[in-house]
Design brief:
VC0802-like; about 40% helix; single chain; alpha/beta; 15 helices; 2 domains; about 450 residues; binds aspartic acid; Carbamate kinase; globular; 8-stranded mixed β-sheet; 16 strands; about 20% strand
Amino acid sequence: MVKVVKFGGSSLASAEQFRKVADIIHAEDSRRFVVPSAPGKRFSDDTKVTDMLYTCYDIAAKGKGFDDKFNEIKKRYYEIIEGLGLDLSLEDDFEQIRNGFIGKAGRDFAASRGEYLNGKVLACYLGYEFIDAAEVIHFSDNGQFDAALTDVAMKERLNGVERAVIPGFYGIMPNDTIKTFSRGGSDITGSIVAAAVSADLYENWTDVSGFLIADPRIINNPAPIRTITYKELRELSYMGATVLHEDAIFPVRKVGIPINIKNTNKPEDPGTMIVESTSQKPEYTITGIAGKKGFTVINIEKELMNAELGFGRKVLEVFEKNGINFEHMPSGIDTMSVIVSQAEFEPKEQEVLAGLHRNVKPDVIDIETDLALIAVVGRAMKSNRGTAGRIFASLAHSNVNVKMIDQGSSELNIIIGVSEAEFAPALKAIYDIFVTAKL
Ligand code: ASP
């Protein structure tokens, strides 16, 4: 049995957290490959080392003195090293990093040093081999992750290695410059390593006990999700439920490795298992609810629209030409509504309207803003009758006006549009009917 274990920034923010991490790793012999983030927040208004590095580098890049900021970063690491009683000096590394800052080695280089240094400290503390991610994670010239080259390099480098720490978040480009994934990208590194070593399980350790059925900022103490499929997770993450980086699922999903989200501060909690498919019956009809505010609906009306061949294509062409993604497109006989992100639409509003007039000569175009979308997601909906009925009955009882409904044929989710003002009451109503009342 081989497990790849990734620890997030808050799990490695202090010596005390490092001790918990080591206990977790030593508790199971199978936890052989470890992917750390940079030290995160120790308390709520603390600053992550990654952010400290960006700030420090930006000062250096302007040619200004950056010693104070740099010393604060050094202090974070030495506090951990001393707190753990390690005999480890990072002075040579700090000197190289300093020179990199002066030589303008790039923001990605700067940010990546958070993981690099934390990897060194953790490897020393665990007695594991340290493998620089620049040896094994490759990006191509255009900055895209190079999966093929990485797989070969990683397999070759890890061949015969029993136990190693590989820092998350970054890799190398063909011209030898350091490149990072987007923020939170250590999750992706963990997934890549898990796929490369054909791990049985990818454990992703963080500061929550997995995914919750709904956003705890809206629903008081929501129930956890024990098992979720990759497809369900995609739907929920797209709507804003974030625990794991979105791109982290692809490498492991392709090769059938499940992910277990676990809590470093409560290792006994089962967390959430993310799997390709499962025969396990979910506890509730729905697996999760998530939603996002900030959408606009463009309603287009034209008599005999239904008879006009290519009408939909001509409408969407206008959005495409303006670089706007469309989220949903419910339609009637002589009406069509296009739902888009408000932030994407607003700067292009007049171009889109002119384009629509030109392309399809509508009778009326009406724009409605401040729409929220809610996704009710669950693999069990397919085999349960009346799910939609219960959702809309609960919304009606809570006096929520439903502006849009969209259910795909996969029956994995139902998307509901409501006004932003009714977003929280709508989420509460849906949560209560399925989870609190367990209907
Ligand atoms: N340290 C990086 C960040 O703060 C990457 C990560 O933690 O995954 O985004």
